Every structure is written in C-alpha cells, then in structure tokens.
Amino acid sequence: MSRRRHSDGDDGGQSHKRRRTSEPVEIEDRLESLICRVGEKSTSSLESNLEGLAGVLEADLPNYKNKILRILCAVARLLPEKLTVYTTLVGLLNARNYNFGGEFVEAMIRQLKETLKANLYTEALYLVRFLCDLVNCHVIAAPSMVAMFENFVSVTQEEDVPQVRSDWFVYAVLSSLPWVGKELDEKKDVEMDRLLNQIDGYLKRRLKTHVPMLQVWTAEKPHPQEEYLDCLYAQIQKLKKDRWQERHILRPYIAFDSVLCEALQHNLPPFTPPAHMPDCQYPVPRVIFRMFDYTDAPEGPVMPGSHSVERFVIEDNLHNIIKSHWKERKTCAAQLLSYPGKNKIPLNYHIVEVIFGELFQLPCPPHIDVMYTTLLIELCKLQPGSLPQVLAQATEMMYVRLDSMNTICIDRLLNWFSHHLSNFQFRWSWDDWVDCLALDADKPKPKFVKEVLEKCMRLSYHQRIVDIVPPTFSGLIPADPIFFYKYQDEANSALPGYAVAIAVGNAIKNRASNEEILTVLKDVPNPNQEDDDDEGEGFNPLKIEVFLQTLLHLAAKSFSHSFSALAKFHEILKALTDCDEGKLHILRVVYEVWKNHPQMVSVLVDKLIRTQIVDCAAVANWLFSPSMAHEFTRFYVWEILHSTIRKMNKHVQKIQKELEEAKDKLERQQHKKQKDSGDEEDMEKNSEDEDGQLEEQIERLQEKVESAQSEQKNLFLVIFQRFIMMLTEHLVRCETGSVDFSTPWYKNCIERLQQIFLMHHVTIQQYMGTLENLLFTAELDHHILAVYQQFCALQL
C-alpha cells in the first residue's frame, strides 16, 4: 500500500487514471473470489452467506452482469460438489432480477451444447444436473425439464448410433433424479412414469457383452459386480418406491422457500441433443466397484445398501471432490474428510472404497496411479487413529479375494501396496498371510506376495526385505540381484570363447577402439558354421554372448554404468545385431546375466529399444519365446511389453505430428503467397523454392509415417498371434487330456490379452479390420474370440 501512495504523490493525476482502469479488474477478481468461496467453512451460516452474496451480486449486476454470468456458468461446470449452493444463489438472484435468471438459463443451455460438441461429457453431466436443481429453486419450470429429459431418452430410438451414446443420455437423466425426481413426479407424474418405462425398455434390450472385460472380480459374492446403468436404475427404482425421499443431499434452498416460491419461472428453450458424429468420443461403460457393506463397518453409522440412492449420492460427491482437487493431495484429503454429513455415514469406509474403485477402474483410472497412493498416505496422516485400520481391513479383503481378481487390477494393487509400505517402514502383519505358503507357487496369493516383495526391493534393497519378512517366507523373498558372468571363473576356461572374453575385457579396460575390439571378436568360433543354411555365416550367437556378457559385467556396478557402456559401444552392438536372430539373442543374453534382477532387465531392454539396437517386434518375440515361458506370468514381463508398445505408439504420434506441422506450414505459405501476389518476381521465386522444399519434406515424412504405422501394425499382429498360439495350444492340450483348462496360467494369460486391448484400445481400433481378417476369425476357439468380441462391444 505504501508504494501506491508514494506513486500518487509523484505522478500527480497519472496514478488516479491507472487506478481507475484497474478498479474494474479488482472488483471482478473480488466477485470471483466471493462466488468461488461461498459454501466453505465460515463463522456465519450458509444461508446468511448466500443472502449476503445475492445482495452484493444484485448490486453489481448493472456493471458486471456478463462477468457474473461467466463465473456462475463456470462454477456450475467445474465445482459439482457445491451444486446446490450455487443453484440456491441463482434462485435468489432470479427472485430479485427475473431477466438475469432468463439470461443465465440461456447461457447454461449454450454451454451445454458446446460441452457436448467438445466431447466434455462429464462437464455436460454437471450442467444437466445443475439445470435440474434449478427446478427446485423455482428458476426453471418442471414441465420444460421433463420435455428436455424426453428429448434425451429419445436418443435410444436413433438408428446406427453407438450404444455408448444412448447410455450417456440415459445416465444423464437417471443420475439427475436424486436431485429433482420428487419435484418432477409431483408436477408431471404421468410423463415421468412414461419416461422411466422407456428407460426400462432400453435397459432390457441393450447389449452387455462388454461387462466381463470391465469387472474387477469375476465372482459375484460377496458383492455383485453390477453394470453402472443397471445399478443406478435399481437405485432410482428404490427411490421412487420410497416416494422420492432422499436424506443426504444438502438443500440450502429449503430455507428460502418463501422467497423462491414467489419468483417467476423460465421455460427451457427446446433442446435437441447434437447429432452423432464420427469423431464423438463417448464415456466408456463402467462396472460399479463394491468392497464393503453394512456388516464391514461394525461401529458407528450404518453404511447405506448398494441399491439405496444415498450410496450413489455419497460416492458421486466423493468422486467429484477427487476430480476437483486431485492435483493437490493435501487439499483433496482434507476436503474428503470434511465431507458434509460425515457423522451420518461411515465416511472412512466410503472414502477407501471410492479411491480403490477409481484405482481399479477399467480400462484405466481417471488419474495417474501414484496420485491414489499419495492421497491414501495423506489420509492416514490426517486420521491416524481410524483410517489406517480401514485401509488394512480393505487390503486383507482384497488379499482373500485375489483368486477372482482381474490380473490388471492385481498389478495396480501390488504397485499401490508396495509403494504404501515403503512410506511406513515396510511394516505389515506378514504372519496373517502365512496361508499362501502352503499353496502352489502359480496361485494368485503366493504370486502376489512374491511380486510385492520384488517391488518393495526396488524401493529399498535386498537385505532390508530379508530383514523385514519372517523366515517362513524365505521361499517368496526375491533372489539376491547378482550378475551371472559365465567367463569369470577359471573353472569355465574350457567354454568356447573363454579366452576371447578375457581379451575383450582387457581391451575395454585399456580403452581400445571399436575396430580393435571387433578384431579381437573375429577369433570367436561360430557354432552355426556347420549348419547348411545361409544365415550361419552372418549370425554368430557366441560373439554376442562373449562381447555383451563381458561389457555388462564390467558395467554391472549401477544403471548409469550400464547405460554408458551401451552408449559407448553402440556401434559394435549394432554390427553384431544386424539380423532379427541377432536382436533376439542380445535380449536373451541380457536376461541370462541379470535374471535375478528384473528391474535391471526392464531398464536395459528399454535402453536397447531407445538406442535402436533392438526393435519393438524383437522384444515381443523374445517375451513370447519358449526360453521365457517360465517367466511368462511375472509382473516385469508385462511391464516390459507395455512399455515397448507405448514407445512404438509415441514414435508414430511424433512423426504424425511433424507431418501435420509441415502441411500446416505449407498451407500458411501458400495462403500468404496468394495475399502477396502483387509483389516482385524474385520473391515469388523464393517462395516457390520454399514450397518445393516443404513438399519434399512432406513426402519424406509421409513415407516415414507409413513405415512407422506398418511397424506398429506388425507389432500388434506379432503380439496377438503369439497369444492365440499359446492359448490354442493350452486349450487343445487340456481337451486331449480331459482336464479343466481354467488353470491359474490360463486366467493370467486371457486377462493379459484383455489388458493389451484395454490399455492400447485407441491404437488397436485403427487395425480392427486387419485383426478380424487375419487373426480373430470365426474359426478361432470361442474362449479366445470372446475377448475380442468384448473389446468390440466397448466401442458400440
């Protein structure tokens, strides 16, 4: 403040001028702050805060109406957890200024159309719900809201549209009824009954092929894994049976009923849902995650039943809080724990169930996995006396149900659990899980414990894991991550290539040049030379073994030493792996030397792809090869495969982006040339040269894109072909031997196939025609084909 006063004195009238121009900005910022903060903790009651704010906004309407409209439309879209607070505020403003109420409704409808066209379906859902609650605040007339719902439900009669389109409009109607169902039923009961009957008919005829692919658990006990629309419809049916009595939504407008009921209402303008376009991206269907019921929370308030609408409202609000604050874990945790009405419900159980529901959501969680870990840690810090116990109970329940848990979700569970333990000194009651020691090593429980300890070792070190786990678990403790160098022991001097390995080691230590090392390697005998095939001359597996084992042995001290070694001798490695067999063999050698250190294998394979020593298809072929069959169900194998696919996808996207940018640049230049057509001839000549260079660049990029897409398609064909071969062999073997095919290996393999489809669905969709013609044909075993059909159903 002192600085401003000082400038007033020095600048005379100038500063007053500057203050006058900045004053509207200050007032606009103040209005935004007031609107955004209403409903937060305050010494005054919510009602008096709303009344005061309505008075302030009414006074500012003549000068700042557009700004106020913009802010209110934004909070309706972005702060759904305070929905009823803002609808009450709009109701109070409408009661004082009818024209403003009308303009706000029109602005909301415009915004709804824009969000739908922009594929922002979650925000569109909040806007629909906001409009519904304005019926309770006497801003919008009930009959026009019912008419809008009827238009929404009419989408289910459209032909040749994806099922997910109809699903969204039905969900938008059903999910709004907890807020407005009572009011609409009182005013338009016949129309509401007809609407619900139409929805009932649609739900009975819609296809649910996709459900098995999206379920966290395959077993229906103790909690049924219901499809989201079926579950919500059951909740609404129960709400209707209870005469639309709902006891959990905060409804501040009730306190202002005498004022609001005097207000004039607006009719919604006729709303026609935007037509389906090929680029529309509708939300993917979901399966509702259930982990707890009223029997799991023994003390305190009772948890609402799975078909009570309160369960939907609570979960929806908690999801909204996470969506609004997920980037700030401390704020998010505090907001979750200060949830309104927390004394009426077992809040900790609801929070834990909602967080795990998001973490396990298929095809992918709404936010990055690590966010959920940090959020749960923050919640444990804020509620140390109660939340850790609920979290431990949830972990125990998930461990008990591992046999029927989806493999993709087991991956996410072990990532979360190991990361969580690393923040609490790896303390856990391991003795409670002693039952897993008596089971076959391939069963989910011992496999889970082994993978968790493996992951914990990445976040710590081997001896620490040995110290924290009871001795009885020694069979599941990861092996000591040592390097296996077969040319180290003099006892192995009879091995072919031993002498050369010693010579190569000395050459590397003496900083020999690449040419000198290649000369030394010429003495390595080629075990393929006796073969008749032509490839024998070019590919020498022993040469790769001798060089790479020796190089990695000298660089085994750390990740960075290994990376430097690969970079320094990149030229030699490229020369040794100039054929597909060579690329496969280099991967086998990396595994052989570091088989006790999966993390090192993962990062080295990653480095080999980045430096283009091996290609993505070689990695896929190696992982599915017989030499890796015993490791096939290990977590790190799938970590490598998905990382490989992601690299391939990013490579294609990068070249496509370069091509688009070059095309845009050419278009801009040609447009500029047309505008400047009256200028001199030499300028025209220069621009023609530039155009020619760009056209050549575009042609080169076009070829690169086609080549990369061909490589990408080949990668998916290799992966799916290997899956089909392995699964078919297993099914035939079981049928021939008259044994049950549904083994832990089969469950793991079929769910890994689902994972490929779910995690890379956007890319795979481009090649659906090829996959259907070449691999997923009608002759394929129906167990394998079912996975492809479930994936296709997700796109309907």
Automatic annotation (TrEMBL):
Main location: cytoplasm
Residue ranges constituting the MIF4G domain according to the UniProt record: 28-240
InterPro entries the UniProt entry points to: ARM-type_fold, CBP80, MIF4G-like_typ-1, MIF4G-like_typ-2, MIF4G-like_typ-3
GO molecular function per UniProt: mRNA binding; RNA cap binding
GO biological process: 7-methylguanosine mRNA capping; mRNA export from nucleus; nuclear-transcribed mRNA catabolic process, nonsense-mediated decay; regulation of mRNA processing; regulation of translation; regulatory ncRNA-mediated gene silencing; RNA splicing
Protein family: Belongs to the NCBP1 family.
Protein name, per record: Nuclear cap-binding protein subunit 1 isoform X1
Source organism per UniProt: Salvelinus namaycush
Gene: LOC120048062
